[in-house]
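Chapter review: from sequence to fold.
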Amino acid sequence: MNDEIKREIRKARLMQYEIAAKIGVSEYTLCRWFRRELTPEQRDKILAAIAELKAGEACV
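The token string follows.
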């Protein structure tokens, strides 16, 4: 499941630090989250951040 999220991040051409900043955690915290199965809340936050950052790129 976490691998799917990581693939989405790569596919969106984003960096983990960008996702971390968007959801208000440190890059280190985000990396720690990926060590275990993400909770539904964490997963939703990350997917929402990916979508928002991708949408922001489209506007530029």
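Two observations follow directly from the output. The mean pLDDT is 93. The domain at 2-59 is CATH 1.10.260 (434 Repressor (Amino-terminal Domain)).
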